[in-house]
Amino acid sequence: MKISILTLFPEMFTGFVETSIIKKAILKEIIEIEVVDMRSFTEDKHNRVDDYPYGGGAGLVLMCQPVVDAIKATRTEDSLVVMMTPQGKTLKQSVSYDLAKEKHIILLCGHYEGFDERIRSYVDMELSIGDYVLTGGEVASMVVADSVIRLVDGVITQESHEDDSFSNGLLEYPHYTRPREYEGMEVPDVLVSGHHENVRNYRLKESLRKTQKMRPELIESRDLTPLEIKLLAEINSEE
Ligand code: SAM
């Protein structure tokens, strides 16, 4: 999979592509990341990419010409052009799974007041990482790229992400590692019992417990299995 990031601040991505799992995915040639400087497309003699908004008001607006020319130079018939904007559809794990099936994603990073509205005609999808406003789309595009890359086949094992929070609609169960006892807190016995089915049931139960406590709306909208109904009844009687 190829991910192209269209930005005015390419230097922000240096650490991103040179660290941890993202770096390994690039070295293994599973992922290609291309960082495109939109400023290099401007036809303005002073290198400007933004201008004052018609109608007045604060801030600067990204102009059509450099942004649209950068999109046109980067996209192919396989590309999905995604505009990073707080006004877009909210990123969820299910969206990341869908994006992980694409061949080429172009992430378009805004800055200042955002984009000239006409740029929206050149994008396939508008994506937000949450209901808050960032300075620019760079951090948001890293969030999207990171969440997508780890779901692409071969980047991490399927087992590593299929139990992750949200992947099956629940929050993930708690994890423990050595030591077995830390400042009076013990690792639950079942996890060291070696009994695989009991471990599976324990994890499902704790996953349900966490989800009910932290994100009850996920339980309310879930089509519960008979086992999940039984485990939730146990949880409710315990609490
Ligand atoms: N004036 C715009 C608005 O109210 O919708 C916000 C502009 S914001 C300061 C500048 C850029 O940051 C946006 O064009 C977008 O690319 C990015 N951005 C800010 N918040 C974001 C979010 N929650 N999700 C995705 N991108 C975001």
UniProtKB/TrEMBL annotation:
One of its GO terms (cellular component) is cytosol. It is found in: Cytoplasm. It comes from the Bacteria. Keywords: Cytoplasm, Methyltransferase, S-adenosyl-L-methionine, Transferase, tRNA processing. GO terms for molecular function: tRNA (guanine(37)-N1)-methyltransferase activity. S-adenosyl-L-methionine binds at G110, I129, G130, D131, Y132, V133, L134. GO terms for biological process: tRNA N1-guanine methylation. Its main location: cytoplasm. Its EC number is 2.1.1.228. Residues 1-220 form the tRNA methyltransferase TRMD/TRM10-type domain. CDD domains: TrmD-like (cd18080). It catalyses: guanosine(37) in tRNA + S-adenosyl-L-methionine = N(1)-methylguanosine(37) in tRNA + S-adenosyl-L-homocysteine + H(+). InterPro entries: Alpha/beta_knot_MTases (IPR029028), tRNA_m1G_MeTrfase_C_sf (IPR023148), tRNA_m1G_MeTrfase_TrmD (IPR002649), tRNA_m1G_MTases_N (IPR029026), tRNA_MeTrfase_TRMD/TRM10 (IPR016009). Homodimer. Belongs to the RNA methyltransferase TrmD family. Specifically methylates guanosine-37 in various tRNAs. NCBIfam families: PRK00026.1, trmD. This is tRNA (guanine-N(1)-)-methyltransferase. The gene is trmD.
